[in-house]
Amino acid sequence: ERGRVSLSCLQFLILDEADRMLDMGFEPQIRRIVEEEDMPVERQTLMFSATFPKEIQRLAADFLRDYIFLTVGRVGSTTDNITQQIRWVEENEKRGQLLDMLQLVPGLT
Fold it and tell me: What is the pTM of this model?
């Protein structure tokens, strides 16, 4: 609101945690930026949400061209197919640790 940044050269618009943005009341600001700023129509827009409720699906239909809805598991619920792990890794060891972990996953290498 204080200053202006041109979005005319934007190639990719990525909205991560879109459900949280809606929960926090940011829909009017998101709509204003997407619909009223100088953003090119020929851009690639990606939206990510863990739950993808109906409000997010509506927003996606409004913002996305050739809208594709991809889910893992049931929409709005957790899935048994995803396991989260937290590992403390020093900055200089991150790449090596990631590559080691990927080697352990069947079908990825």
Answer: 0.58
